[in-house]
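Supplementary Methods. Inverse-folding protocol.

Structures were first reduced to a discrete structure-token string of length 239. This string, shown here, constituted the complete conditioning input.
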């Protein structure tokens, strides 16, 4: 099998190691990886900010960048959710109708792809530490994953998962929400971090780099004993 990979903006610019971690896991499963260097953004930021014309232009490029019939795997449920759930708003009954429908069928978030497409639950990973998991809003409510990351983490040697209170409550990022509503956003991050600290966890884990960036900013500012890590980086550890 050969898959295409989509590397979202946040990961490309701020957390490139997470992209390499995903590739490492896929290659361990003997899955060929194709990366189109012309890829850019899925259009989520523009779409959520109300710039639909701009989002549509970005979406048209995205559709053409992934115009084959291979699986597309991405380490971000929010970006995949954008393609699956909101491209119909822009491209239904358009000249790209068939192409976007094909894209919807083919694109998967990383942990969903591993568990539900490849039927893999144990990657032979080792990660020593206590972690707690954050269900990002888009991952849980728009994409619909909850069990898949946990199933994979349960089979990581040395990892102890401790669930925090209100794991499904927003971290406060929300894209431009964190800029337009700074005080509310910061208070939400404070609550989320405190819930994580209350578990005694050393690591705060999520499928979303944007959530991790937001939480990490709060942690660093207040010099708190907690680290953030993307689930792909955990699953690529120890082999």
């Amino acid at each position: 099998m050969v898959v295409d990979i989509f590397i979202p903006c946040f990961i490309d610019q701020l957390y490139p190691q997470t992209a390499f971690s995903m590739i490492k896991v896929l290659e361990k499963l003997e899955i060929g990886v194709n990366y189109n260097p012309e890829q850019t953004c899925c259009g989520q930021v523009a779409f959520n900010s109300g710039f639909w014309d701009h989002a549509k232009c970005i979406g048209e490029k995205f559709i053409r960048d992934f115009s084959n019939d291979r699986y597309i795997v991405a380490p971000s449920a929010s970006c995949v959710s954008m393609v699956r759930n909101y491209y119909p708003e822009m491209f239904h009954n358009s000249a790209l109708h068939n192409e976007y429908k094909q894209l919807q069928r083919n694109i998967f978030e990383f942990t969903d792809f591993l568990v539900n497409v490849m039927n893999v639950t144990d990657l032979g990973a080792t990660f020593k530490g206590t972690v707690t998991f954050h269900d990002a809003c888009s991952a849980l409510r728009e994409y619909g994953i909850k069990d898949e990351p946990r199933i994979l983490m349960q089979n990581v040697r040395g990892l102890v998962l401790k669930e925090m209170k209100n794991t499904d409550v927003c971290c406060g990022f929300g894209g431009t929400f964190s800029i337009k509503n700074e005080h509310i956003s910061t208070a939400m991050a404070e609550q989320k971090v405190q819930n994580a600290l209350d578990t005694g966890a050393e690591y705060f884990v999520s499928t979303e780099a944007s959530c991790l960036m937001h939480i990490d900013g709060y942690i660093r500012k207040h010099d708190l004993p907690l680290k953030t890590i993307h689930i792909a980086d955990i699953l690529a550890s120890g082999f």
